[in-house]
Design goal:
Helices cover about 15% and strands about 30% of the residues. By secondary structure, the protein is an alpha+beta fold. It has two domains: about 80 residues, Sandwich (Immunoglobulin-like); about 250 residues, Rossmann fold, CATH 3.40.50.
Length: about 400
C-alpha cells in the first residue's frame, strides 16, 4: 500500500485509491459568492476643436475704359451715366458709376474681376456691353461699341410750317411717326392730341414751329374747338412721364402743359391763349443774336460758350420771345440783348425797344406727386435758316437729354 498525492493541484489526504480511480476525492474549489458589477459610465469624448477660420478673401480689381457716342454712332457725348451693378469678392453689392467727359470718355476704377455688363445712359437712350475684367488689367471697350441707342423709345412729330425737327432726328438716326400739323391738322394732329391713350404710346412728342396754323401766312395758331381737351391731355401726358419739345410759334403747346412756367412778351394780349394771333409775338426779324450758353454741360458739348442765332425775315417777322420763367425752369441759352418789334406796328415792320437777359432755350421737369414726370423744352429758335452747325448741335443736345 502506498500513499499518493492527487494530481488535482490540491492535497487529497490519505487514501487507498488514487485520484485517477476516485476523482471525487479531489477537493472541489468553491468560488466565492458572485457580486454583480455596475456598468462603468460611458466615456464622453470632448467636442472636436473647430478648424481655424479661413483667411479673409483676397480681392482683385481691374479697370474699364471706353467712350460713349450718340445714336448716330459718330457724335461723342458728355454727361452720359456709365454704371456697373457689380459685387465684391465677398458677394456684397458694389455698384460703380461715373460720367463721360467732353470727348465721351470714361474710366471705371477698382472694378472687381469677373464678367460685368457696362450700362450707358443719356436721357431716354441706353446701351449695354459685356466685358471681362482681369486682375490689375485695363479692359478697353472699342470705340462705337457703347453708342446709346433708341431701342424701345417711341417718338412722334407733329409737323408745322416753320421748321422740320424731323430732319434733325434723321441726322441722329432716330425713327419717328409723323402726324400732320401743317395741312392736315384737323385730320391728323388734332385727333392725335385729343387721344391721350394714343399719345402715351410715345415717349417724346416734338411739335414743329407753326403746327396748327391757319389764316394767310399762318396768322394764328388755332387748336380748334377741342383745345381744352388738348391742354388737359398735354398736361397729363407730361405728368405721366412723356416729354414735349416745341419751338418758336409752337409755344402754345409748351405753354398749355403748365401755364405758370413760361411767360411770353405779347404786343397787346395779357396772356397766351388759344387761338393765338402770331402778330402778338414780339421777337423782331431780321436780326442775328449772339447768345450765351448758360448750361455748363451744353457749353462742354459745343466746346464754346457763345453761339450766334439767326432770325431771318420771312413771310412773318414775329417770333416767340420769352419774358419770364418760373424758378424751377432752367435756362440753357440766353440772349444778353435782343431787339423787339415796334409795339405800334402789328406787322413788326419796324424795330422797337431792346430787352436784356432773355431766355432763348428753357426746360423744366413736371413732377406731380405720385407721377413719373416728364420734360418740357421750348426754344425761341429752330434749325432752319441757320449758318454752321452750332444751332443744330444745341438741338441735338436737347433731343439726347429728353
Amino acid at each position: 500500500m502506498f500513499f499518493e498525492r492527487c494530481s488535482c493541484d490540491e492535497r487529497a489526504g490519505l487514501t487507498r485509491q488514487t485520484c485517477a480511480t476516485e476523482r471525487t476525492l479531489c477537493p472541489v474549489e468553491t468560488p466565492p459568492d458572485t457580486v454583480p458589477q455596475e456598468e462603468p459610465p460611458p466615456i464622453v469624448e470632448p467636442p472636436p476643436t473647430p478648424p481655424p477660420a479661413p483667411p479673409p478673401a483676397t480681392c482683385a480689381y481691374g479697370r474699364i475704359t471706353g467712350r460713349v457716342c450718340a445714336t448716330d454712332n459718330r457724335t461723342w457725348v458728355n454727361g452720359a451715366a456709365v454704371t456697373i451693378a457689380s459685387t465684391d469678392c465677398d458677394g456684397a453689392d458694389m455698384p460703380l458709376q461715373t460720367t463721360t467727359d467732353t470727348s465721351g470718355a470714361f474710366t471705371l476704377t477698382d472694378v472687381p474681376i469677373g464678367r460685368w455688363t457696362v450700362h450707358a445712359e443719356l436721357g431716354s437712350f441706353t446701351q449695354d456691353v459685356t466685358v471681362d475684367v482681369e486682375d490689375g488689367e485695363t479692359t478697353a471697350i472699342p470705340d462705337n461699341d457703347l453708342c446709346v441707342a433708341q431701342k424701345d423709345v417711341k417718338i412722334a412729330v407733329i409737323t408745322g410750317m416753320g421748321d422740320k425737327i424731323e430732319d434733325l432726328l434723321d441726322s441722329l438716326s432716330l425713327t419717328y411717326t409723323l402726324y400732320s400739323g401743317k395741312d392736315q391738322w384737323s385730320a391728323e394732329g388734332e385727333p392725335f392730341l385729343r387721344n391721350l391713350t394714343e399719345m402715351k404710346k410715345y415717349d417724346i412728342i416734338f411739335v414743329d414751329c407753326g403746327a396748327a396754323h391757319s389764316g394767310a401766312g399762318g396768322s394764328k395758331i388755332d387748336l380748334g374747338g377741342k383745345s381744352a381737351m388738348i391742354a388737359q391731355n398735354l398736361a397729363a401726358y407730361v405728368a405721366g412721364g412723356g416729354s414735349v419739345y416745341a419751338s418758336d410759334w409752337s409755344l402754345l403747346f409748351a405753354h398749355l402743359v403748365d401755364p405758370a412756367k413760361i411767360d411770353f412778351v405779347l404786343r397787346t394780349a395779357t396772356s397766351v391763349a388759344n387761338p393765338l394771333a402770331t402778330n402778338q409775338l414780339m421777337g423782331y426779324a431780321p436780326q442775328n443774336v449772339t447768345t450765351t450758353i448758360t448750361e455748363p454741360a451744353l457749353a462742354a458739348f459745343l466746346g464754346k460758350s457763345t453761339v450766334a442765332i439767326n432770325f431771318p425775315a420771312g413771310s412773318s417777322k414775329h417770333w416767340g420771345l420769352i419774358e419770364d420763367i418760373a424758378a424751377d425752369v432752367g435756362t440753357l441759352v440766353s440772349a444778353p440783348t435782343v431787339t423787339l418789334c415796334n409795339t405800334t406796328n402789328s406787322q413788326c415792320d419796324a424795330a422797337g425797344a431792346t430787352a436784356t437777359n432773355i431766355p432763348f432755350a428753357v426746360r423744366y421737369k413736371l413732377t406731380p406727386a405720385g407721377e413719373a414726370g416728364g420734360w418740357v423744352v421750348y426754344t425761341s429758335f429752330h434749325n432752319q435758316a441757320q449758318t454752321g452747325d452750332d444751332v443744330a448741335n444745341i438741338l441735338k443736345f436737347l433731343v439726347l437729354h429728353l
